[in-house]
Amino acid sequence: MNSLILVPVFFPMILAIMLPIAKFRERVRNLYVGAGVTANFILIMFVFYFIGEGKIHLLKLNEFVDVYFRIDKMGMLFSILVSILWIFTTFYSMEYMKHEGKENRFFTFFILTLGITLGIGFSGNLFTLYIFYELLTLATFPLVIHGGTKEAINSGKKYLIYSFGGATLVLLGMMVLFSITKSLDFNPGGILNEIEHTNTKMMLWIYISMFIGFGVKAALVPFHSWLPSAMVAPTPVSSLLHAVAVVKSGAFALIRMSYFIFGVRVIKETKANLYMSVLIVITILLGSFLALHQENLKKRLAYSTISQLGYILLGIVLLNKDAFVGGVLHLINHAVIKIVLFFSVGAIMYSTGKTRINEIKGIGKKMPITMWCFGISSISLIGIPPSNGFVSKWFLAQGGLMGGRMLFPAILLISAVLTSLYLLPVVTAAFFKTEEGEEIVVKEAPKKMLIPIVCITVIVVFLGLFPNPIISFIEEIATEVM
Known about the structure:
mainly alpha; 2 strands; transmembrane; ND/Mrp_TM; Monovalent cation/H+ antiporter subunit D family protein
């Protein structure tokens, strides 16, 4: 029965392999892809319901080389988030990719990336997570360079260099860690608590090495510049990079490493969290300041992502229950908010060809649904009550106060002000400014793009008004790992 755990991971990979072989016509291909990702979500829910927290070793050569899958609450949360947002991105992409071209190639790697991302969520140990983490880089590289331009190729190369550089640091730390622990299995509360007389300085360097390594994909400053460069990719890919797959996989890996390998006690003893918090504060503030200076809509959102990821990382290193809940909750909230923002910008680009803030004056009257969704999501990202962004930031601020660090709530408040300064001008330009020059006929994007935008905006609002079920679930995880 536990072998069913493998199905949601490998089913999308089989779909991806079959897609270029079958050579479907557009309509059949869209049906194939849409039905495939939807069926995979149903499979995931089936596995969670009937198997629960199961586990299976797919390949075990020794204690280190062990491809091991295990379902737990943290993996469930991540996998459900990924699967739901993937369905919306799929239907959005069916229309958007028509003017990008090479759709079959796009959907092949798009579905493949889904299976790999779920492999990260289902990983039962650090070795398995690392394997799928590396595969994620390889699968998303063709999506980043999809346009085939010189700029796209250079951005792809930068993405590979940063990702593999970070992965090398992870591998180095993982090998040294294994020489001490003889196990890399994820265990709530960590596996190092049971090992006495460890070398504190060595543990510090292992943690820093692995935190920076995984932090590359989570756009930790100063290892962040690959992310804005990757904005040359099509908008659905930007959504994958920023909201669902890549950066959230980096944050998820850091949660696994911190709370399921090292544990709170060991991290506190090494003071590794204090060292990392310096980079995280810089990430939050620098991302916001750089976003202020971007006229290109996608790049403004890219630097915003860097700042917002800092919130999640802050929740990880504060090492208390409220901060953990806030960090994991913001991982979910930022995903749904940011995917609406990117989808909305993509809809503007699709309908008008405009990419800069000064080009969208008055567009709110012509694309009201798109811009209302953008506005609601902007308010949520700023953290104005009763939005979902406010809920996660409230828990993070509480976590900072609980840890006796008044600086962190102040940083969150400053960042919220900066977030309003770089998002609200987009909304005011769209609704309250008049288009200059000759008026161009513009209408809303097609329904295949508009419906996912509206549906996810509804989720954003719902998570703000009714956050308690998810908070309760995350609190259960927090209780296990603290």
